[in-house]
Amino acid sequence: MMRVFRKAAIEAGDRIMEIYDADDFEVKAKSDDSPVTEADEAADALISAALRAAFPDLALVTEEQSGSHDQQVTSFLIVDPLDGTKEFVQRRGDFTVNIAWVQDGVPVRGVVYAPAKGRLFYTDAEGRSVEEAGPFDPEKTGSVTPIRVRTPDNGALYVVASKSHRDAATDDYIGKYAVADMKSAGSSLKFCLVATGEADLYPRLGRTMEWDTAAGDAVLRGAGGHVIRFEDHAPFAYGKPGFANGFFIAHAPGVELKPA
């Protein structure tokens, strides 16, 4: 499974970068007014074809195919072919390719590829998370390094928050902690920064969908981190109606979590 995920993510990333590096590309608006580009659609077609060929019997949910959003499943493949479309459109680089396998409501395998940043994170065959060093060959794995959350210092936490969706409620919540450093990042990269120990805490008090989070969540879990519901700190489950997420907190163990 992870060989298929990795290859599809890299090939999709290559196609995305061809469009990203072009002089111009088309941007359309979806029914919810969010942007979609030819890169989203090209990457989705490539990944979907690869997953359907390799795993014809598994349910597939993908952001760009609205017909897949009506399924009621707890074990499924889930794809966001280009997370961070706003970052892509504004050529800020913080966008990712995301592919995950959710088993019984838990994302247990995933790949997050940030082609403009040259960073590739994924779970290995045992579910442990690694970062691979580039350049990335779809057919051949390069040098990989295991990644692990850091032990947080609650008197000096490293926090990461959304670049495009930051709001006063998020700032108010972060203000409950003793923060040594605050970063902004786009897309599912925020999960990966917690997974590598570059951050301790990522709170999200805003709308997301399961395809936005599943792959990053899998990478974080495989690095020893946790994702929990914001309101009650209960486990964060997948396969919810319409694949819509509530608010959540991604964190390293040892962070002294504050109430909502």
Notes on the structure:
The chain starts with a helix and ends in a 9-residue tail after the last strand. It has helices at residues 2-20, 38-54, 85-89, 168-174, 189-195, 210-222; strands at 27-29, 35-37, 60-62, 76-83, 96-103, 106-114, 119-123, 129-132, 144-146, 157-162, 179-185, 201-204, 208-209, 226-229, 244-245, 248-251. With 260 residues, the chain is α+β, with helices and mostly antiparallel strands. The chain has 6 helices and 16 strands.
Feature tags:
single chain; 260 residues; alpha+beta; 7-stranded mixed sheet; 3-stranded antiparallel sheet
Widest beta sheet: strand line-up: 3-4-5-6-7-8-9
So how many helices?
6
> Rg, please?
17 Å
Biggest β-sheet description = 7 strands, mixed
In short:
With 260 residues, the protein is of the alpha+beta class.
Produce the secondary structure layout.
Elements: H1 2-20, E1 27-29, E2 35-37, H2 38-54, E3 60-62, E4 76-83, H3 85-89, E5 96-103, E6 106-114, E7 119-123, E8 129-132, E9 144-146, E10 157-162, H4 168-174, E11 179-185, H5 189-195, E12 201-204, E13 208-209, H6 210-222, E14 226-229, E15 244-245, E16 248-251
Parallel strand pairs: 3-4, 10-11
Antiparallel strand pairs: 1-2, 4-5, 5-6, 6-7, 7-8, 8-9, 12-16, 13-15, 14-16
Helix pairs in contact: 1-2, 5-6
